[in-house]
Write a structure and sequence with these properties.
By secondary structure, this protein is α/β, with parallel strands linked by helices. The protein is about 45% helix and about 20% strand. The strands form 8 sheets. Strands 20, 21, 22, 23, 24, 25, 26, 27 and 28 form a 9-stranded mixed beta sheet that branches. It has a 6-stranded parallel beta sheet with strand order 6-3-2-15-1-14, sandwiched between helices. It has a 3-stranded antiparallel beta sheet with strand order 10-11-12, with no helix packed on it. Helix 3 (about 35-50) packs across helix 13. The longest helix is centred in the middle third of the chain and has 26 residues, at about 390-415. The two termini are about 65 Å apart.
């Protein structure tokens, strides 16, 4: 290619690639990628691990122990009054934050009115002594109902909107201290701390909320102020910072804010961290506080020793709900399973006291990183010729180095640089550049890509590539073993599980089934909801296809038993029906039509024919016989021909399936020889004898044998998960029916199926 033409084509390629980083930049700036970016930030927290802070934060848990010992929540406020007084005056805590809103609705109606008043009085009396106790208040909350009965919410005043005059003057936060005239009514205690976070999450909190009357600080800011010994008027708020300044002018902390009031929390550890999050039950503290006034000197001494421990001395103590029943939970960067949100305030305090704030680059710097990485990686990824493999490896190393840099900057400097948009932009642009290169230099790859789009089976693709022929409609007859499986009572799963858990469950189950089928040489035909359809013996011929199919069925059942145990061990994540999941499998061996079927533009490699339908009837009909794997005699004979006695069968009689007129002998696959117990073998023998007596019309003899075999059945109702019947039970019922209403004289033992 002439140099000028090559240069023109290169310029055109980069001009076409330029919109890619621009698009990702817009997506990053708009916040549409925040969910993914936050996930990668979580990974950075987890890779960094726990870090310590120069402040002691202790949690006093309103946990299941406290709820059990004190009683159902909410409690009489006398418990809080006594615990707060003891923590400050006896244990030496520097400050206490109460993550419970003392609203007028926060006292149980069941509490005796006099005790309720007594509790409110005692709490009020203590709080109005102005101890270092911060009471919780939620600014954003329902405050009224409109004429239609819908809740009207008080919204958190956002500084950026107030400055842009998007909102009017924010209202005063409703009062919460205890009235002197009405001890049952709560109004404002001297110290109030906001417990709001943005959208209820655990990443960003408002450091303060301005109102027309006063400014409310976040609980963590108030606690940090108390920790540093700063007076209320020592809190200096500006556009970019909140300074905590002592009376002598010493600045104890500078809190950087975004949008005039927001602070991003630096999480120091997961919730379950004894070293970083020491915890004790509220009831334990309360019981020891009561023991201080005990007449028993031993109890008094034990209480004094308890509060003399260094755990509470000069600590920030946070009292909050941790029992899941109180529903104050959220995920954190360390905890993917929701944990108590009181930990948010503790980590915010640690962030302020340590000064380890999370930092982010300005928007223009993030865009520059995105563009630079995209161009650099694309240049290496799109390079061709003899150096192609080496340059592509270099591009991959550049991406790896960028990820390492992002994690290292976070660990060492608390700096967050974007990962999602730069990586996606680099990958997207590199992919586009490589595709461009492939189109120009390797036109033959288009034909191979078409083959991949037309075929599911990798073996078929390899065969077509080697033959040089394009896929076409058509098929041929061949002997295969058709495989159908379906989950028992799947409609109940759909009813009890939400779409998310159902998808997770089915993906795990279908992956296990598919891996086993393909591991035995089978080819996946399709999924039909929860059903798996496969074939053994095509497209690649297998002499022992029936044997492989039979083995696969038993491996699936054993794998499902393992999954049931795993799901049960996960507790409340799955309902009981999941613990009892069973699947039914049907097999049939015979000549079928195999090939590409569909339209001229879209088709599948699949199987058709009467023998395929018969395999499906084996699966659906297995329920009527109390079996979980049922096959035709053709499959049994073909399996025994090449597999010997490795697969153990049991005869179930002869049936005429719906849509056919010819009787088909059917068999249950009991298991593989090494897994079949002696009881199961005895059961098969007794059952077979009973079946013979059944056909001879010896109803009493058959019933006696079936009842004996029923006690030895591998699948027992009420014992084996999900099992409600088995072949012995089914034939007991059939024989009892015939004993009462004998079949006609010309009866030949054939059972006619009325359903598919």
């Amino acid at each position: 290619m002439p140099p000028k033409k090559a240069r023109t084509r290169s310029i055109a390629r980069w001009l076409l690639l330029l919109p890619i980083p621009l698009l990702w930049g817009v997506l990053m700036q708009s916040g549409l990628l925040d969910f993914l970016e936050n996930r990668l930030i979580d990974w950075r927290f987890q890779a960094r691990g726990e870090i310590s802070a120069p402040v002691k934060v202790v949690y006093v848990d309103i946990d299941s122990q406290a709820l059990s010992e004190i009683g159902g929540f909410p409690w009489n406020r006398i418990y809080f009054a006594r615990v707060l007084r003891t923590l400050i005056e006896q244990a030496g805590a520097r400050a206490v934050g109460v993550d419970i809103v003392f609203s007028e609705n926060g006292v149980a109606e069941a509490i005796d009115w006099k005790k309720r008043v007594e509790g409110n009085r005692e709490l009020a009396k203590y709080l109005f002594r102005n101890p270092p106790v911060v009471s919780a208040a939620s600014y954003a909350a329902p405050v009224d109902r409109d004429i239609n009965g819908r809740l009207v919410y008080r919204m958190l005043p956002l500084v950026r909107k107030l400055k842009n005059k998007e909102e009017g003057e924010p209202p005063e936060l409703p009062a919460f201290r205890i009235s002197e005239n009405d001890p049952n009514r709560l109004l404002s205690p001297p110290l109030i701390g906001l417990i709001d976070s943005i959208d209820g999450a655990t990443r960003v909190v408002p450091a303060y909320a301005p109102t027309s009357i006063r400014t409310y600080l976040h609980m963590a800011v108030e606690l940090a102020r108390l920790h540093f010994g700063v007076k209320p008027d020592g809190v200096k708020i500006s556009d970019d910072f909140i300074d905590l300044v002592r009376e002598d002018g010493t600045r104890m902390a500078r809190i950087p804010v975004t949008d005039g009031q927001m602070v991003e929390i630096n999480w120091f550890s997961p919730w379950m961290s004894p070293a970083n999050n020491p915890r004790i039950s509220f009831s334990t503290v309360y019981n020891y506080s009561e023991m201080l006034n005990s007449a028993d000197e031993a109890e008094q001494q034990a209480a004094v020793q308890f509060f003399a421990q260094p755990d509470f001395k000069d600590a920030i103590v946070l009292i909050g709900p941790v029992d899941p029943l109180l529903q104050d939970l959220a995920v954190t960067p360390f905890d993917e399973v929701p944990v108590p949100k009181v930990g948010l305030h503790g980590n915010m305090v640690k962030t302020i006291v340590s000064g380890l704030y999370l930092h982010r680059l300005p928007a223009w710097a993030n865009q520059l990183i995105l563009l630079g990485l995209t161009v650099l990686v694309s240049l290496f990824a799109a390079a061709g010729g003899s150096r192609g493999a080496r340059t592509k490896l270099t591009a991959l190393l550049l991406l790896t180095a960028f990820v390492w840099l992002a994690f290292n900057l976070f660990e060492q400097h608390q700096l967050i640089i974007p990962l999602v948009a730069p990586l996606c932009s680099a990958f997207t642009a590199s992919f586009a550049a490589i595709v461009w290169q492939l189109i120009l230099e390797e036109k033959q790859k288009g034909r191979i890509k078409g083959m991949f789009g037309a075929y599911v089976s990798p073996q078929l693709v390899e065969r077509m590539v080697e033959s040089g022929e394009n896929p076409q409609l058509g098929g041929h007859d061949d002997e295969i073993t058709a495989y159908f499986s379906d989950i028992q009572s799947f409609s109940s799963f759909s009813e009890k599980l939400g779409s998310g858990p159902l998808v997770e469950l089915m993906n795990e189950y279908l992956t296990a089934c598919t891996d086993i089928v393909q591991g035995q040489g089978g080819t996946l035909d399709k999924y039909i909801g929860d059903a798996v359809v496969a074939m053994f013996g095509a497209p690649l011929p297998l002499k022992d296809h029936a044997y492989r199919a039979c083995v696969a069925t038993q491996m699936v059942h054993r794998k499902l038993a393992e999954l049931r145990g795993k799901w049960k061990s996960e507790g409340a994540k799955w309902p009981e029906i999941v613990w009892n999941m069973q699947t039914r499998i049907g097999l049939n061996t015979g000549t079928c039509m195999i090939g590409n079927m569909g339209s001229r533009t879209r088709f599948n490699y699949t199987m058709m024919g009467d023998n395929v339908n018969l395999a499906a009837r084996m699966e659906s009909g297995a329920k009527s016989w109390g079996a979980y794997t049922m096959c035709t005699e053709a499959t049994k004979l073909s399996c025994e021909q090449l597999g010997g006695d490795h697969v153990v069968f049991r005869p179930l009689g002869r049936i005429v399936v719906k849509g056919r007129t010819t009787a088909v002998p059917i068999h249950e696959i009991v298991g593989l020889k090494e897994h079949v117990t002696s009881d199961a073998r005895e059961c098969i023998g007794l059952f077979s004898q009973g079946l013979t007596r059944h056909y001879e019309r010896d109803w009493d003899g058959a019933l006696a044998l079936f009842k004996q075999s029923a006690r030895l059945e591998p699948n027992q109702p009420g014992i084996t998960p999900g099992v409600s019947s088995n072949p012995s039970i089914v034939y007991t019922h059939i024989t009892e029916h015939y004993k009462e209403e004998p079949p006609p004289e010309n009866w030949d033992g054939v059972y006619v199926m009325k359903e598919k």
